[in-house]
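Module 6 notes. Inverse folding takes a fixed backbone as the condition and produces residue identities as the prediction. Think of it as a translation problem where the source language is geometry and the target language is the twenty amino acids. Below is one complete input and output pair. Work through it position by position during the lab.
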């Protein structure tokens, strides 16, 4: 994953490290569907990246986003319910709502300096299911294709979907970004068929390779960002 500000992996590793916090609402009696949670997390990342608080020269989040993108674009998904969720919503951020999922995204924070109400939320073991198989995605919409050979928890998959959406965002020009934003960031997250995965990863579409901090081996390919504006570049 490359940054729009620095393109050397060594420079990204040497830079101060930040993380983008995401919190998924996970009530005991109404957990979100897995696919909807992944899609909502991806839209949450895009919503923050396009927010004027993160893009304007004097935006309150602009410097934090710049510093984060200068380093590894790390994302961590934690879960909250009840009073935990209410405290999480009180912190500066943006809540994005899907069909069954709610995800709140926050401006990046130093890796070792999470707000206390977020730091105490659990991160591991976030498991979700789809009550029904996801529908075939609309071919006119962006699709974030998951590697069929890499198993991930729901929280890890949400973060990876966010990476894929961000890489697609970086590849688009201003007009394409504006069109996606104005449409409400439509997208789908699906697991690719093995043959399709081979084709998708052989072309120029943005490909997420995980740094290997949690769950999976370093360098593992996890997501291909298949945006219609980039799809025409496929061989």
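Target side of the pair, the amino acids:
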């Amino acid at each position: 994953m490359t940054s729009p500000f620095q393109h050397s992996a060594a420079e990204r590793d040497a830079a101060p490290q930040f993380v983008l916090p995401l919190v998924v609402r996970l009530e005991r009696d109404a957990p979100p569907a897995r696919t909807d949670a992944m899609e909502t997390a991806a839209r949450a990342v895009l919503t923050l990246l396009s927010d004027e608080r993160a893009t304007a020269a004097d935006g309150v989040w602009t410097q934090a986003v710049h510093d984060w993108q200068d380093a590894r674009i790390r994302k961590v998904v934690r879960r909250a319910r009840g009073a935990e969720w209410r405290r999480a919503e009180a912190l500066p951020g943006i809540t994005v709502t899907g069909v069954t999922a709610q995800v709140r995204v926050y401006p990046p924070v130093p890796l070792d300096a999470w707000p206390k109400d977020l730091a105490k939320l659990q991160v591991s073991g976030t498991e979700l299911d789809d009550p029904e198989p996801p529908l075939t995605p609309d071919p006119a919409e962006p699709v974030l294709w998951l590697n069929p050979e890499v198993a991930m928890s729901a929280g890890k998959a949400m973060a990876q979907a966010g990476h894929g959406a961000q890489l697609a965002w970086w590849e688009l020009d201003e007009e394409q970004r504006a069109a996606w934003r104005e449409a409400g960031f439509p997208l789908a997250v699906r697991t690719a068929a093995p043959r399709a995965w081979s084709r998708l990863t052989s072309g120029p579409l943005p490909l997420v390779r995980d740094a290997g901090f949690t769950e999976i081996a370093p360098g593992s390919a996890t997501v291909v960002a298949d945006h219609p504006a980039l799809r025409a570049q496929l061989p």
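Reference fact for the lab report: Residues 9-114+129-231 form a domain with the Bit1 fold (CATH 3.40.1490.10).
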